[in-house]
Structures are given as C-alpha cells and as structure tokens.
C-alpha cells in the first residue's frame, strides 16, 4: 500500500439501505431455518424456543419496514444514529446500547 492510497473507511456512520436489507435478509433466513428445525424436532423442543424465534422474525420484519420508511438505524429511545457496529451484530435492533439498557 502506498502513502498516496486512501484507506477505506473501516466503519461508516450508517449502513446503506442495500446493506441493511442484505443483513436483514440473512437474519430472516437464519431464523426461518431455526424455526423449521425446531418444528421438525417435534415435542422434544420447548415451545418457548418457537416463540422466541417468531418474536425475532417479527422484529426483523419491522426492521424491513424501517428501512422502507427511512427510519432504520435511528434509536427509538433517543433518536440518535445506532452505531453501525451494533447494527452489524444485531441488524434488527431498535435501540442504541444505552437506551437498550434503560429499557431493561
């Protein structure tokens, strides 16, 4: 790498809509696979797992709606941008870390 070569920004301030959709699609596919595995396991798996997976799927779908309406990546608690690093880990989150802790 030469000194004249600009370094790419490692963590942009916000995800693009395309990046957000891709992450959410990956999350949706993963949760649907989990749900199918749980349903195929039958009685051996607790219904709480199914409920949790369905709840997360609902959160993923709500995040798709936020991408569509332009509010994706904004904290629902303080209205500031949720750090990209948090969205990379939990793409369907509604809150920044401080507001998530405050919400309990």
Structural class: mainly alpha
**Head-to-tail CA distance between termini:** 46 Å
| Unreliable parts | 1-9
Average pLDDT level: 84
Number of strands: 0
Main sheet makeup: none
Radius of gyration: 17 Å
Spatial shape: globular
Helix share, percent: 55-70%
Count of helical stretches:
4
What percentage of the residues does DSSP assign to strands (E)?
A: under 5%
Please provide the ordered H/E string of secondary-structure elements: HHHH
Please name the defining characteristics of this protein.
single chain, 104 residues, mainly alpha, 4 helices
What does the model show?
Helices cover 59% and strands 0% of the residues. It is built from four helices and no strands. It has helices at residues 17-41, 47-69, 84-89, 97-103. α1 runs antiparallel to α2. The N and C termini lie far apart (46 Å).
């Amino acid at each position: 790498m030469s000194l004249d070569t600009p370094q790419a920004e490692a963590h942009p301030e916000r995800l693009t809509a395309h990046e957000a959709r891709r992450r959410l699609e990956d999350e949706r596919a993963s949760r649907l696979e989990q749900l199918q595995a749980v349903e195929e396991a039958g009685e051996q798996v607790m219904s709480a797992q199914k409920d949790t997976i369905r709840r997360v799927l609902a959160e993923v779908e709500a995040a798709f709606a936020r991408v569509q309406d332009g509010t994706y990546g904004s904290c629902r608690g303080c209205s500031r941008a949720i750090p990209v690093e948090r969205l990379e880990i939990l793409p369907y989150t509604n809150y920044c870390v401080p507001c998530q802790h405050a919400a309990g």
